[in-house]
Amino acid sequence: MTTKMMPNRQVGRSVKRLESHSKVTGRAEYTHNLRLPGMLHTKIVRSTVAHGLIRAIDVEAAKQVPGVHAVITGEDVRKFIPQPYFGPAFHDQPILALDKVRYVGEAVVVVVASDPHIADQAAQLVVVDYEELPAVFDEIEAAKSDVYVHEELRPAGTFPDLKHLVGIRNTNIALDFSLTHGEPEKAFAEADHVFEHTFTTQQVMHTPFEPMISIGEPTHSGLTLHTASQSPSFVRIEIARLLGWPENKVRVKTGQLGGGFGAKLYIKLEALAAALALMLNAPVRVALTMEEQFYTITKHATTFHIRSGVTKDGRIVARDCDVWWNGGAYADIGPRVTQKSGFTAAGPYDIENVKIKSAAVYTNRPPAGALRGFGIPQLVWAYESHIDLIARELGIDPLEMRRKNILRNGRPQATGTIMKDAAIEQVLERTAERMNWSAPFDKGSGTRRRGRGIAIGFKASVAPTTSVAMVNIAADGSCSLYSSTVDMGQASETAMAQIVAEVLALETENIRVVRPDTDITPYDMATLGSRSTFHMGNAVRLAAEDAKQKLDELAREVGLTNASDVPLSQLFIKKYGMQAGNVIGVGTYIPPYKSPDKKTGQSDNATPFWMIGATGVELEVDTETGHVKLLRMVNVCDLGTPLNPKVVETQISGAAVMQIGFTMSEIMNFDAGQVTNASLADYKIPSFHDLPDLMENEAVDAEQTTGPFGAKGVGESSTFGVSPAIANAIQDAVGVRISSLPITPEAVYRAIAAADNRALEEE
């Protein structure tokens, strides 16, 4: 190989995804396709009650089924692991239920067999006797209830931003975050108008098309976990803690992920797979069906009460926000969602006086955690619907209302953090321009009425977190990148390769990216919250620059000015007399961060970067049926400088499409805690027929000065404004306000009928 470091722009190229060929040819490696010698299969027996004591478990009939190797209960696990509880915020979730169950669908018993069909057959023979207890399902009711989901809480203490968590008895509140900026009550008293509204969102599911899977494999040195995980480094740490082992006895490997969206973060199936593999001394595969994913992790349902004090000319002088997050039976990462998202609940507006209360609440529903947007879409749904209502009440154009109050660079956000590198105003103005907002708009006639709406939101990045990367230059000049960032379809491997190639003046396509393997790839907190481009991107750039510096030092050792004077392979030959040796660059990135004050929520450095996204919508409403047709959608984002423009385009559209589903159709229906539509036949995700006739996506001209080559994350930005933009457009079309998601045809029809004082036909 005659690779030579040459001037060659790689950042800004629309490079095809490095893994694309393996995917389209069917050669991509997914954990679901992995088969190990002697591998056993599992079927989980799940709770049929929402809250109840486990009085007895009869497994004898299941054990007698030919091919069954073991039937394991929570008590069996506890004998092997004395404290079998896990979780990123609280160690509150048992590997299998112990003493009581907390939601319908909780894992209680697992059957292990030589064949998955045998395991399924035997699982149906397990009998569990419960003593039912009162249950709580609504977040507001649960916060006030004396029915407790947990008797005590054990803070995990893993992450710096969650160190403040304490175990509180006799409450269902896992975290109560408060923020005060200025003098809100005084400002409310002096305001010309006070407006208040309540908005709710529903519980939904991630629906990755690759269901969750983990395989535990005992090895001579300990344990290897093959898992579809977004956070292999965390899995390693948590499994080692559970087992009381050093980390170097636990190896975690990921293949390609067929979607994640937050569902595959932290610990999900890995603890069970690890325990079973070690208890049975055999490889054990724990794989969920699509239905079982509904019982594993979901998105928080919320209730958001928002109140604003406003002047006669539309200036918002005070805002009070109460957000209640339905966390389900186990906290997962809900406390972080509650805090990180909660402190932006007042919206991307310059409001001098703000009061925010954001609470994570335990209920007897399936657990809720991270899902694309990390709580922000629920908040934007409320505050952007609220501001439209205010504008209409005051007779102010909704765009002008936003312009009057928008938060600009150099001004403090509600936490006190000064806005930097945040193109909020540019995103709003570009969306309005693309929508041709100032031009006359055809509102339709008869039973087909047309409307348009606009909405904008922003998000703080998760911090503090650590990312580490390594770049290895082989003696023939070829280059490999080692990082534990997980590519689950967002093309992170391609983006990271572009950064390496840019620094080392190589071709992106020639960079090999080694998939996450904790024995090989260095630590990364997790692939979540659109942090990878910024955090890992900075670590990768530092690693590549370290490698470049070492190459230049090597060049000077052999009498050259720098490494670009000769092909890299010749550089190694000059040094070692043959093709030998290598150069390794290492980079670690930890952004600066200051934790918010416990009492006031104030911090002068609450986030390393801001994500901004706005959506404009034109739609048509059929007043006879309530059906809404999306005619046009414009999504505009600030992602700094795009590393790969084509990937950015698909990320923006993909996130918006996902949010269309959460807005228009997706909802988990419950009956006494039981999910009644846990299948893709009944749980309606968007099809091509549900998409706008025209979708336009754009990244504004911006730069994140602290990001790698000016870049920051984009994977969530276009989720922010979709829901309120659609609701605002519906009100513009037919004059009714929808305040609860999803916006189904029935909800729209009922609202129109109520506004017209029409009697609804009885079903």
Describe this structure in words.
By secondary structure, the protein is an alpha+beta fold. The protein has 3 domains: 20-31 and 465-589, Aldehyde Oxidoreductase, domain 4 (2-Layer Sandwich); 34-133 and 212-287, Alpha-Beta Complex (Aldehyde Oxidoreductase, domain 3), CATH 3.90.1170.50; 298-462 and 597-755, Aldehyde oxidase/xanthine dehydrogenase, molybdopterin binding domain (Aldehyde Oxidoreductase, domain 4), CATH 3.30.365. The chain contains 19 helices and 30 strands. The chain has a 7-stranded mixed β-sheet with strand order 3-7-1-14-11-12-13. The protein has a 5-stranded mixed β-sheet with strand order 9-18-17-16-10, with helices on both faces. A 5-stranded mixed β-sheet has the order 20-21-26-27-30, with helices on both faces. Helix 11 packs parallel to helix 18 (722-734) and helix 14 runs parallel beside helix 15. The longest helix has 26 residues, at 532-557. The termini are far apart.
Which features characterize this protein?
Aldehyde Oxidoreductase, domain 4; alpha+beta; single chain; 763 residues; 7-stranded mixed sheet; disordered N terminus; 27% helix; 5-stranded mixed sheet; Aldehyde Oxidoreductase, domain 3
